[in-house]
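ENTRY TYPE: protein
CONTENTS: sequence, structure tokens:
***
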Amino acid sequence: MKKEKEIEITKDMTIDEVLQLDESLGDVFMGFGMHCIFCHLGIEETVEEAASVHEVDVDFLVKKLNEVYKQNHSKK
């Protein structure tokens, strides 16, 4: 059986790309005070650009996004 390719969220992805993977990841952005997910311009920013604007540690944000994504999409 072929193993499904594991998705890894990176700081170079746009917010829109992340939200297309899983809309519930918007809650992670909101938890960091990043309301840019509601702005048509903000969703075109990379995760790194948005984190910089909001003074958020991008590595910690990416770690949390990946944790939640993996939790939501793990095979049970």
User: Anything to note?
Assistant: The chain has one domain: 16-73. The mean pLDDT is 89. Residues 16-73 form one domain.
